[in-house]
Fold these 3 entries.
Entry 1:
Amino acid sequence: MASAVSAIFILDLKGKVLISRNYRGDIPMSAVEKFLPLVLEAEEESQAPAPCFTDDGINYLYIRHNNLFLLAITRKNSNATTVMLFLHTIAEVLTEYFKELEEESIRDNFVIIYELLDEMMDFGYPQTTESKILQEYITQDAYKLEVQVRPPMAVTNAVSWRSEGIRYRKNEVFLDVVESVNLLVNANGNVLRSEILGAIKMKVFLSGMPELRLGLNDKVMFESTGRAPTKGKSIEMEDVKFHQCVRLSKFENDRTISFIPPDGEFDLMTYRLNTQVKPLIWVEALVENYTGSRVEYLIRAKAQFKRRSSANNVEIHIPVPEDADTPKFRSGIGSVQYVPEKACVIWKIKQFQGGKEFSMRAHFGLPSVKNLEDADKRPPMSIKFEIPYFTTSGIQVRYLKIQERSGYAALPWVRYITQNGDYQMRMPDSIKASKMAPI
């Protein structure tokens, strides 16, 4: 399916055009005037405005970034996913150039933005979109715009994301497997939602045009080859997305991740596992509310992972009534802080070893009389953490092979990190007359 775009616009929130680029000339530029009224009409009808809609035979596709709309319009039956991805790429490239992408930075840099739009798209088709390559020949020094007469070879090569002639005295590759755990537990302790979002992030400092091959304990690969994993388990990844450098045909044929990497930092791939996750850090709360006088909390936290691992920089955010005052705390580990502007208590534990359990008590006065039912409708507790050298899914890098025609030796480094994503636990209703021990 074609992905031709007729025109690109950058507008402010009032619908005023800041930047426009007409690529094909098959649509009147006045078509943009209908965009914001159509979006506002959808909002008035209590609908979430769709990112893609059609009016009078013209397709509108847009994203919102800070105080801007990035809009593409076309008459073609274009691939909407490709167009939306291109709009996000424009936002990323402009952010790389100007640090902050907002109305002011657009007005201050319109000349270089037009140069970038001309290089990134040709006759409505995406072309060079790699920020690092664009910065080699479209540069901005203070208020002076410098454009090289000859673009770098990367623009005309098949490998458009990497320049030729890169040299390092020490050739190294750093690979991080980072997994974020999304979790929601109800007040009864039942897991309502859980998933793992993973990313393989790389920092590449290699000379020349190296070929890299990455092997994972991929279940589909083992099944297709009839082999069994040598140790541990295999995993089945969903929603796998690769950087453009990965040879997709090679992956589809034999599940080999083969690629010529960009120079420096980039995300090689992302994936998702929709699986039942055992809470890594379990937090339960006991709340005793004395109407209009005080409220007391007993918080217990347990690290439910292997003892040889430790969670770093753990933060447990416990919501409290907005009118609470005169806080008193007692904890077996870490520090406790009352943050009145957020109506919460933050319990910080610098290092939480696996298998350990700790408790914290908190006492607050309540200067005003509030309805108990409102007090019980608290937001959930949220937990932040980072566990190095550990993955929840069990993903493993089996090998990372580096080949370059000059035959130099390169050092690969692999690291695993698990961290919180949207990790929340709901608090139970207040209890009466449990007579907690005083602080």
Entry 2:
Amino acid sequence: MESKTARVPFSAGWEALISVAVNPEELFPTFPYRAEVTRRNERSVARLSLRRFPWKFEFEGFLEMAFNEPHVTYVMKGQRGLLILSFMAGDGSLVVRASADIPWEKLLGKKLQLLAEGSGKALARMAESHYVLAPLVFGSGEEFILRRFEGSLLAHLLRYVLLKTSKRSFRVIGKAKEDGFIADVTDGIVEKIEYETFSGTSILEIKKDLLDVSEEDFSEMDLNGEYIIKIEAL
């Protein structure tokens, strides 16, 4: 079996990790490569696809999950063999291992490294954002109320929307009594934020991947309070 490991920063803990990891149907589409989990004959089926130079890697298999603090493990069993993604929550980091037991596994080193780095980064960021934002959300779907919101939390809000909708292109509209904002995300890239306060309207250019934006990117936005959030397609 061939394996590659990666370590990514992770500021939350086991409770945050497991709250996201138990829903692979939501989590897998947030990975920075093609990934999905669907149902077939009452079983979960995972599909992964890396289409990077010099050749693509695709895998499909029945998905099994195991949770044993501080470990999360996804085992995918397909006709070609096994593909395993395992995560361990540590002190300030998430350790990820991608392993393959399939033909030509010795040639998969770079692909397994990309799988480990990408899935680890996505799980870490989604777990952090869900842990921060979920307690502030009232309602579900494409319109909900967000309480005790402030501008710096916008990075978490955008990742929360990706997690809950699986959409990589969308517009988030937030409205309060005296101010509001519009955030555009195109193919996983946060393009710009237009926000209005008592002092006028401003536009904040971001141009960063959803997994890379942070609270600091939105710290200058003077927003605070309860907002009605609407999600629209782009």
Entry 3:
Amino acid sequence: MKITVINGTEKHGVTYRLKEMFLVAFRDKANITEYFLPKDCPSFCIGCTNCILKGEKNCKDADHIEKIEKSLLESDLIVMTSPAYVFHATGAMKAFLDHLAYRWMPHRPAPEMFEKRAVIITQCLGSGAKSAAKDIKHSLSWWGISQIGIFTGALMGDIVWEKLSQKKQAELTGKIQKLSRKFAYIDYTKPAYTNLITKFKFFVCRMMQKSIHKSDPEYLDGKYWAEQGWLGSVRPWK
């Protein structure tokens, strides 16, 4: 199997350690590709909308984005990690997710995404891990992913692993290992399920694209949906 990991920071801190614990169960059976932000996606999205209106190859950062997206589409499991910065995912993670706006369901979602599984790993000092995870989950769900596992860790008193109490270390370790086991036992030869919320989003977007394509057959998004067969009876899930 193939796993792609998007690390929301280059820092090898608590989030990195938790991610490494999660991956232990997969090391012997998976080909794992990792990206570290912002190194592997160093530029901000500037909102030019070229990816949406003209095609993703027209993005000024296409060389970076195409490489990472190809890895995501080829993966059986996607792992997204980020510590919480002011109650949200890191700026580098947000910048990366902005670059993939064209893959949101209202535009040109990749059919492969509807069959994938993902895990989000976040932590912070105090509260904020849940809202950081929500930032990432929002994009993943609009890419078409339904089966998403989430780990949120709340640290108290320090953000350095070695300075955490043994009790806190054991608590975080047990929690991440439980999530790891859950996803390690999955049969990845079978596609993930598509839930009703995702299907509802798809059908709303389908109605919109059907109307747009009827009025302007050359509009890129509507044309893409028509080519996929989604304006007819074809669906991206099985």
